[in-house]
Amino acid sequence: MDRLEKRVDTLELTIHDLSADVAAIKSSHATKHDLVSVYQAINSQTWKLITAMGMLVATFSAINGVMVYFLK
To answer: What is the pTM (predicted TM-score) of this model?
Structure first.
């Protein structure tokens, strides 16, 4: 009976470890899915920033052109 109890204890520990591993796998899978939405948000913000910087460059270039014209 002592051998049987040791085997049961070993199996219970193994099941506990497997449960923890499955939980970790499930949580990492959800994280991978969430990374897609984070990537899309960062991509969107990057394009908005590039557009804003382009508009600033165009505005300052226009202001510079007007200043050069009037200061001649």
So the answer is: 0.51
